[in-house]
Amino acid sequence: MAETASHRVLIIEDEKNLARFVDLELQHEGYETAICYDGRSGLDMALSQNWDVILLDLMLPELNGLEVCRRIRPIKDTPIIIMTARDSVIDRVSGLDQGADDYIVKPFAIEELLARLRALFRRIDTEEDHRASHQPTVKYRDLVVEKANRIVKRGDQVIDLTKREYELLLYLMENLNMVMSRETLLDKVWGYKSEVETNVVDVYIRYLRNKIDVPGQDSYIQTVRGTGYVMRT
């Protein structure tokens, strides 16, 4: 229990029974928690206090979860896990695109949510050490990633990537010539394993190609049919 005692979790969920259940379970595990039942008060609470993670429902009164996420991101980088009954790929991708770090589909077992939180905090705790252990600049062909300031360039042109696109590209560039399965990319970039949601990786590879590829030239990221993706030297 001491391991999670300092972690503060904001729950933004309008289903009161679910919100209270999650609240009690998290408190039992040693988390400090608060609940908001609508998007507007949740946004105010998210911005006015410091939280270690925000659990955010998508279908909220007054302000929907995607808009809450969109408004938080320019101001704070608090990790956000979306809790949603919507299970289509486009809904999950929309949440991730607005800056969410993870998602969990209702109904879920509380053990899964707790595992997601533990994985999230492990990533946060080791992220700085991980960056320090790698070279500050990664190069592939004419692409350059400046790791210290998380900038991707082709020559003098800065390529604007989302947090997840950047992490996906960096992982592929740091593992040149190694074919990465969709499951591996989910595990290493998103931080959890899934047998069902691997098509999210395909969506993000498409986003990346649209931003980094040069028309008329071979794609930087090659598809290995039936396996995954690779960047080859």
Q: What is the chain-wise order of helices and strands?
A: EHEHEHEHEHEEEEHEHHEE
Shape: elongated
Number of strands: 12
Q: Count every helix, treating DSSP H or I runs of 4 or more residues as helices.
A: 8
Give a short account of the largest sheet: 5 strands, parallel
Q: Mean pLDDT across all residues, rounded?
A: 86
Q: Strand order of the main beta sheet, please?
A: 2-1-3-4-5
Topology:
Layout: E1 8-12, H1 16-28, E2 32-36, H2 39-48, E3 53-57, H3 65-72, E4 80-84, H4 89-97, E5 102-105, H5 110-132, E6 137-140, E7 143-146, E8 151-154, E9 157-159, H6 163-173, E10 180-181, H7 182-190, H8 199-212, E11 222-224, E12 228-230
Structure description:
- This protein has 233 residues and is of the alpha/beta class.
- The protein has helices at residues 16-28, 39-48, 65-72, 89-97, 110-132, 163-173, 182-190, 199-212, and strands at 8-12, 32-36, 53-57, 80-84, 102-105, 137-140, 143-146, 151-154, 157-159, 180-181, 222-224, 228-230.
- The strands form three sheets. A five-stranded parallel beta sheet has the order 2-1-3-4-5, with helices on both faces.
- Strand 3 (53-57), helix 3 (65-72) and strand 4 (80-84) form a beta-alpha-beta unit.
- Helix 2 runs parallel beside helix 3 (65-72) and helix 6 packs across helix 7.
- The chain starts with 7 loop residues before the first strand and ends with a strand.
- Residues 1-5 have low confidence and may be disordered.
